[in-house]
């Protein structure tokens, strides 16, 4: 397995809390965030990047400030988060490289896309702790992944040259002609298989969908070895996600990178509503997730002292 360099390890420490576990607030969505802010397609299209940037700034100000890190996109959120001093100095910053949406091949495969002009060097220049790349994978169909694995390897190599932390995320998906019930039964094997592909490409930190079962979580941990992995929320309701986090943490996960399950029903085009709901709804949800993480995560040990104890010394 690929091991973190000293510089990458420092970046990884910064996206983790004092207990050594990842607790990252994800708000790098663009299309998905527009669909939450407005229901009508015309109204969604009218929402500017500036409005999305303001929404992400509110999430960073009121929610990510209570966590260890925030994940944003390079289109709407930065450099304003840094230049306007919205992000706190002890909140780490990850920048997503993947473009919104996907192209579709003639065979129906999802083809991932990158934001033009964003590289490891530009991520560093934006003041970020590291980057995040997301690709779509169907581990049961080798031919479906050729394009996306090429993108994945390209990004991993780029960040290795810059010696900058890169979090690798993948999502799996159902084909249009595929039975939904049958697809759901395949999810554990697809998540395990997708994790294997990312690890084989050299991923050093993973962000993955909930593997579906405790046994699948344990198998991802076995495959990953020393590579830490975080579970993503995929927009499920908060109570469901809490159970998934507990399952993942009990079986070897190193934290959480969560977005919509925290804030999807809190954001509004009325920023006063967003502020109130982030404070009254999203922050208590975050505290519940943090409690689950603290109950199960042992932290990284060094000479008998864990990271949390070091931070308190």
Automatic annotation (TrEMBL):
User: One Pfam annotation, family name?
Assistant: DeoC
Q: Which GO terms describe its biological process?
A: 6-sulfoquinovose(1-) catabolic process
Kindly list the residue ranges recorded as spanning the membrane.
none
Keyword entries, A-Z: Lyase, Plasmid
Can you tell me which residues the record assigns to a coiled coil? none
Listed name of the protein? Tagatose-bisphosphate aldolase
Domain of life of the source: Bacteria
The organism named in the record is Rhizobium jaguaris
What does the record give as the organism's lineage? Bacteria, Pseudomonadati, Pseudomonadota, Alphaproteobacteria, Hyphomicrobiales
UniProt similarity note: Belongs to the aldolase LacD family.
Tell me the GO molecular function terms.
6-deoxy-6-sulfofructose-1-phosphate aldolase activity
